[in-house]
Design brief:
Length: 487
């Protein structure tokens, strides 16, 4: 069994307790992970706080911070194969995806490296002749970053990158499911030359998370995970009135009109629901399809779903690997059963695969005659697609917006004016037109409603890790007039 250590105040150390992590491809334990106790969490926040006010970090220019982030980007790129291997081993995410994704994670650090000295304040044309007024943008303080098990390196980069660019310090809690890549990332981070305590990496479950988010030293909580956990986090962070950014789940509509390019739309749908074994917050998990194209689309989709290569996540040929946990697999089975009872018809898949590991096949459920089926409103976080058909554009929009979530959406049509109407009408943080699942450090990412609030990626994310200070400087040497009148 391999063992991993936590990273606090620039030192690697064992935690008082450990827990085993499972290899989802075999269902067997393979490594011992440190379980941060509330005392460990407290030390990590204090280390981040000390670093935040230290001359080594607080006195560093933004350009110097950018250079360190650039060095980190280079190190992530250099060590991407090792990080990908660990993420695959510990979470079951296929190596084909982790290799490509982690190489791209380096680009996120590069983007925020470049942005560090472009986070500007402002000078205000104030309405008083003897005053200069300007705004300083200052870092918010210690950031608690909490990530779920899928894509931890990616989901942490969109927090650590902008937070450090802005001058904050971070305590990152990795998920208790598959924390190995984050603890290895800490080893890489350590080589970049940041002052001790600027980033601290711990792991553990809800107890460690609750201790972190309710800690008085935390100024902002950046969370990615499920809506239920988000509610706990908001309640805990309310103790110190810390600000929050929440990237939560989705039930994203994937809308296909009769005039769409069929092959292209089917491929995008395969990517939208079966890639990453469907364990993606932006999964296009509701296919909203116009009646005229439905049969042809479903026939082609079924063909592709049944041809998907299911196998060991560390095999480059594998397209769909295991789900990360047994709990996820059982959740999928329960939701399919309840949906079938409500009238959903299984087009393909629907039952867990025999043998070891947490494998689940690509599944399609036709809910066109079962509008109340729970699979249309609940997130699977697995390779399961629910289908609803429609006749008119207005109907398509109504179905698309019939969700408490609002993260992503896809529209497939060759009709330009209709595409624009759909873009305006869809209530979601991302609209992809004739494409799906495209991301970039330059574009903001985030949702509405149960999908959360705040944005990751782009300039806005870095600004969200700053607070504005208004500075007033009087330029007159005359005595201050009437002190009883507001100036
Ligand atoms: P989860 O909410 O169960 O756990 C996420 C993290 O929160 C873990 O690190 C966990 O230890 C921690 N946590 C649990 N209880 C806590 C508490 N009381 N206080 C503080 N922290 C606590 O989510 P999951 O099952 O690991 O991940 C799947 C969810 O994440 C899905 O809903 C998915 O859509 C969402 N997700 C969203 C995005 C996005 O960017 N919008 C990206 C990926 C995943």
């Amino acid at each position: 069994m391999q063992t991993f250590q936590q990273y606090i105040g620039g030192a690697f150390e064992d935690a008082g307790e450990t827990f085993e992590t499972l290899d989802p491809a075999t269902g067997k334990p393979w490594a011992q992970m440190p379980a941060a106790s509330p005392a460990d969490v407290d030390r990590a926040v204090r280390a981040a706080e000390a670093a935040f006010f230290s001359p080594e970090w607080a006195g560093m220019t933004a350009t110097q911070r950018g250079k360190l982030l650039m060095r980190l980007a280079d190190l992530v790129a250099e060590h991407a194969p090792k990080l990908a291997e660990l993420e695959t081993r510990d979470t079951g995410k296929i190596i084909r995806e982790t290799s490509a994704q982690i190489a791209y994670v380096a680009e996120y650090y590069r983007y925020y490296a470049g942005l560090a000295d472009k986070i500007e304040g402002a000078h205000l044309p104030i309405d008083k002749p003897d005053m200069e007024v300007w705004l300083r943008r200052e870092p918010v303080g210690v950031v608690a970053a909490i990530v779920p098990w899928n894509s931890q390196l990616f989901l942490s980069a969109v927090k650590i990158g902008p937070a450090l660019a802005a001058g904050c310090t971070v305590v990152l809690k990795a998920s208790e499911e598959g924390p190995a890549p984050m603890l290895e990332f800490a080893r890489i981070f350590d080589q970049a030359g940041f002052p001790a305590g600027v980033l601290n990496v711990i792991t553990g479950g809800p107890e460690a998370g609750a201790a972190l988010t309710s800690h008085a030293g935390v100024a902002h909580v950046a969370f990615t995970g499920g809506p239920e956990t988000a509610r706990h986090i908001v309640r805990n962070s309310a103790e110190n009135l810390a600000s929050t950014s929440l990237e939560l789940g989705g039930k994203s509509p994937f809308i296909v009109f009769d005039d769409a390019d069929l092959e292209s739309a089917v491929n995008a749908q395969v990517s939208g629901i079966f890639a990453a074994t469907g364990q993606s917050c932006v999964a296009g998990s509701r296919l909203v399809i116009q009646k005229g194209i439905k049969d042809a689309f479903l026939a082609r989709l079924k063909e592709k779903a049944e041809a998907v290569v299911i196998g060991a996540p560390d095999d480059m040929a594998t397209e769909v690997g295991p789900l990360c946990t047994l709990k996820q697999r059982d959740h999928a089975l329960r939701l399919i059963e309840a949906s079938a009872q409500a009238g959903a018809k299984v087009v393909t898949g629907g039952a867990a695969l025999e043998g070891q590991g947490f494998f689940f096949p690509p599944t399609v459920l036709d809910c066109s005659d079962a509008p109340e089926a729970p699979c249309l409103s609940n997130e699977f976080f697995g390779p399961v697609l629910s289908v609803v058909d429609f006749e008119t554009e207005a109907e398509a929009l109504e179905i698309a917006n019939n969700t408490a979530f609002g993260l992503a959406s896809g529209v497939f049509t060759r009709n330009l004016t209709r595409a624009h109407r759909m873009i305006r009408g869809i209530r979601a943080g991302i609209v992809w037109v004739n494409t799906y699942r495209a991301v970039s450090p330059i574009a903001p990412f985030g949702g509405h409603g149960l999908s959360g609030h705040g944005r990751e990626g782009g300039l806005q994310a870095a600004l969200d890790y700053t607070k504005v200070k208004a500075v007033w400087l009087r330029t007159s040497d005359d005595p201050i007039p009437d002190p009883f009148v507001m100036r």
